[in-house]
Design brief:
Layout (H helix, E strand, L loop, with lengths): L1 E2 L6 E6 L17 E3 L2 E5 L2 E4 L3 E4 L19 E19 L5 E18 L8 E7 L3 E11 L8 E7 L3 H11 L3 H4 L2 E8 L11 H5 L6 E5 L4 H13 L6 E6 L3 E2 L2 H11 L6 E8 L6 E3 L2 E4 L4 E4 L33 E5 H7 L10 H11 L4 E11 L12 H16 L8 H14 L3 H15 L4 H4 L4 H11 L5 E2 L6 E4 L7 H17 L9 E5 L6 H4 L4 E5 L5 E6 L2 H36 L2 H8 L5
Parallel strand pairs: 11-12, 11-14, 12-13, 16-21, 23-24, 24-25
Antiparallel strand pairs: 1-8, 2-10, 3-6, 4-5, 5-10, 6-9, 7-8, 7-9, 7-10, 14-20, 15-21, 16-17, 16-20, 18-19, 22-26, 25-26
Helix pairs in contact: 4-16, 7-8, 8-10, 8-15, 9-10, 9-15, 10-12, 10-15
Length: 612
């Protein structure tokens, strides 16, 4: 299965890198799995003591051949330098996840072996090293016959809002490695906060390696869609082939950028290429392996339940057959996503959605134009997962529904929205049962705005965040610190119903409780629930509860009110009926204007500073 003496130009498709001080602790086994003693000397050098076995069947160490389907590559060349003598074996999995040995050789000095690819290497490809004596391996790379096109180059688009520490650290991290920095023509930071990154004490040092390639644009807060669109359109003035959308509050593995750009060079259909999100709270677990949109409910979900939350320090390519199965995604989150600038020229930038659903809608729009999304294993960053956020209870609840509706009106295949409206009503009822009247109110406003037609996306773009916060305040659903309460918070751990019979019984109790007069609550204490326990089956049986926020010492004081509950429930039903009736006409309007709403001219008008 190996050959030597290959002629022609080769291009490195994946460097073998090792962890450094910037990656989260406890993640070494995502790079290399050692049996015996070894020492990481640098990002590309590993010393092995006698008797040590080093496996690169790891998340960052193996080549995800499963994600290179359709690239036209029929061989890969493994090369590197060995100081000493080691045994190197190349192994791979087929599409079913079965492991096969492909090559076996003794490596000394400058080492090269070429692997011919077939069905036995259709899943993942990696190598293992056995050292009989102390030896050092370094500069290991996988290369492929070079494609006809030139190397892909990136302009990076970062959006930040009052996260100067994170953003400055990210700018510095991007400059850490020359091989990565050389592929970046420009870094655009849309600074939308009121604590500008220019004022950060470490900004000058982080910016120095970039010179005039770093462009910081200070603008009003236009949300993620406004910040990323600024970077997308700014990239069009460069010689870059792609724009990389990159979140600001991430811990980045820089090699990911090189791998994504190289994958783009071999792609036949100019896809969008996304990176995985690893959990910053549990750094060996993948939070997102790519996303799909379930069309009937028009809601995002993991591309595969088997891949959701997978611990890739344990579920390695040689142990987890599910990794070798192709995963076809609808979109990749804009924590890190590479977009061909040819697509931006053809489709424009994001819709003016402020936050939420901008990444999903754009990918669906690109797919309709022949540019699917590919999520690339081994390209990743660490980010706080959205499961520790309160986006269903704070101002983001408006955008969660509003933008979901806009995306569905443009892309749903169902004439009346499928099961989406039923799903919306169910969630509205849930909020009412939980005494989350602020969420119900802003969701009803979201539907009302959507019913105005696509022009409201521009007319209300700047004013909506403030309006939503005002509504939440009027409904007394704003975060307060637990220490600011004038009463004691008595923690309660409710038991969730198990089984259909128990669930139905609990629902009957909850509904009956909603009709009862609100009981007088002791002025000296209030029930306290953790965020994960704050569900309809627990909140629905209380009259006054302090619901802790997901990741802070604050929370929401929720108080049941029969009059307000009825008002919001009837309002939600009325809005759903009107939306169902007008859906076909609205869908035609939004689809007709999607292109104009996302073009450079529209965004230029929104980028213009707000008059004082």
């Amino acid at each position: 299965m190996t050959s030597s003496g290959d002629s022609g130009e080769w291009r490195v498709v994946q460097r073998v890198v090792l962890p450094d001080a910037h990656v989260p602790p406890g993640t070494q086994e995502l790079y290399v799995a050692l049996q015996g003693a070894g020492e990481i000397l640098s990002r590309t050098a590993l010393r092995l003591e006698a008797g040590t076995h080093a496996s690169f069947a790891t998340y960052f160490g193996a080549v995800p051949r499963v994600a290179w389907q359709g690239s036209g590559i029929d061989r890969l060349r493994l090369a590197g330098t060995v100081d000493g003598s080691v045994r190197i074996r190349v192994l791979g999995t087929d599409a079913a996840g079965s492991v096969h040995e492909i090559a076996d050789s003794i490596a000394v000095g400058g080492f090269t072996t070429t692997v011919l690819l077939d069905d036995r290497s259709a899943g993942w490809l990696w190598f293992v090293v056995d050292a009989e004596r102390t030896a050092t391996i370094s500069e290991m790379t996988w290369a492929a016959p070079a494609p006809a096109r030139e190397p892909a180059m990136a302009s990076i688009a970062i959006t930040t809002f009052n996260r100067a520490d994170d953003c400055v650290a990210l700018i510095a991290r991007l400059a850490d490695e020359t091989v990565v920095q050389e592929r970046i023509l420009q870094v655009v930071v849309a600074d939308q906060g009121n604590h500008r990154i220019h004022a950060h004490p470490d900004f000058a040092a982080a910016a120095a390696p970039w010179g005039d390639r770093l462009v910081v644009i200070e603008q009003d807060n236009l949300g993620g869609s406004g910040g990323f669109s600024r970077g997308m359109l700014k990239a069009l003035s460069t010689e870059a082939s792609h724009v990389l959308i990159l979140d600001d509050d991430v811990v980045l593995e820089p090699e990911s950028l090189s791998r994504m750009l190289t994958r783009a060079e071999y792609a036949q259909d100019e896809p969008l290429i996304g990176a995985h999100m690893l959990r910053l709270t549990e750094p060996t677990r993948v939070h997102s392996w790519g996303e799909r949109v379930e069309r009937r409910r028009f809601w995002w979900e993991p591309v595969s339940p088997a891949l959701a939350g997978l611990d890739v320090s344990e579920a390695r390519p040689d142990r987890a057959p599910v990794l070798s199965e192709p995963s076809h995604v609808d979109f990749n989150g804009w924590w890190m996503c590479l977009i061909p600038l040819s697509v931006v020229r053809a489709l424009g930038a994001s819709l003016p959605l402020f936050i939420k659903w901008d990444d999903a809608e754009y990918a669906l729009r690109a797919a309709r134009s022949g540019h699917p999304t590919l999520t690339l294993p081994g390209a990743a960053l660490w980010h706080v997962p959205w499961t520790v956020k309160d986006d269903g209870l704070d101002w983001q609840a408006y955008y969660q529904l509003h933008n979901r509706l806009v995306a569905a009106l443009i892309h749903s295949p169902y004439r009346r929205g499928g099961a989406l409206l039923r799903d919306i009503v169910a969630l509205d009822v849930n909020h009412v049962l939980c005494a989350q009247y602020g969420s119900a109110a802003v969701r009803r406003r979201a539907v009302r705005d959507v019913l105005e037609g696509p022009d409201h996306l521009i007319a209300k773009f700047r004013s909506t965040p403030g309006v939503v916060r005002t509504v939440l305040a009027e409904e007394e659903q704003t975060q307060i610190a637990a220490t600011d309460l004038s009463v004691d918070v008595r923690a309660v751990r409710p038991v969730a119903p198990r089984g259909s019979a128990a669930t139905i019984g609990r629902l009957i109790r909850v509904v009956a409780h909603q009709f009862r007069p609100v009981r007088s609550v002791s002025p000296s204490a209030v029930t306290g629930l953790r965020r994960e326990d704050g569900k309809w089956w627990s909140l629905g049986l209380t009259d006054r509860t302090f619901l802790h926020a997901a990741a802070s010492g604050s929370g929401f004081l929720l108080q049941r009110d029969r009059r307000r509950a009825l008002h919001h429930l009837l309002g939600a039903m009325r809005s759903a009926v009107v939306l169902w009736w007008r859906w076909p006409a609205l869908a035609r309007e939004y689809r007709a204007q999607a292109s104009a709403l996302s073009d450079a001219e529209t965004w230029s008008s929104l980028f213009a500073p707000r008059e004082a």
